[in-house]
Amino acid sequence: MIFLKAPWEIEKMRRSNAIVAEILAALREAIRPGMATLELNILAEKLCAKKGAKPAFKGYRGYPFSLCVSVNEAVVHGFPSERKLKEGDIVSLDFGVLLDGYYGDAAITVPVGKVSKRAERLLRVTEEALYKGIEQARAGHHLYDISAAIQRHAESHGYAVVRQFVGHGIGRALHEDPQVPNFGKPGRGIKLKAGMVLAIEPMVNEGTYEVEILADGWTAVTKDRKLSAHFEHTVAITENGPEILSKV
Ligand code: MF3
Ligand code: CO
After folding, report:
1. In a mutational test of the pocket of ligand 1, which residue from 24, 54, 63 has the highest number of ligand atoms less than 8 Å from its CB?
2. The whole model's pTM is what?
């Protein structure tokens, strides 16, 4: 069941998502070679507490941290750890909060120091794919118009979109209907309406779209261990088009 959000609910989601965006921006600033990924989790929790928000992921289906940190071939749901970041790594940071009954959720993939041209291109194309998807998030369009735009952009650059994880509706729950795949046919899927709020989150791989889960039960990595990138925004569909809620 898809819950349409009233303007007052979207206002609450602006607040929760602005906190997510601010914290991700702070993490992006803080990141440097030699830093343990657990330090990023600690910083995220500290900033979150300062804002009076609750980290959304900690305890969610047993996930043990507040932040997902997915390095290089890790696609999503990586555990923060003592592992130290190295110059040239790319790091996906996925963070969510609960504030005043409403969730915020967003992700960015950031370079550590100077990265290869290959990595830079993957980051750029994945973020562009997110924006191509957001552009389709309009009342009267179909859900898979979003999916198709993302897939088309990624594949036209020689990349593959992950099938095993998808975007989602978001609101009073972190994951609501509908699922928002990053692949599909334009013109298919439900009709989009004003009041829908979607977390759109392309995961784009350099090589195969196939992923596997590591022994920790969470970390998804590319099957061929090539690089993967992930960007996510929470987006409200309004009468005036898409509004990105997870921005500073
Ligand atoms: N952004 C991810 C999602 O929407 C974060 C979930 S991680 C989990 O699915 F640990 F909370 F599961
Ligand atoms: Co999400």
Report:
1. 63
2. 0.98
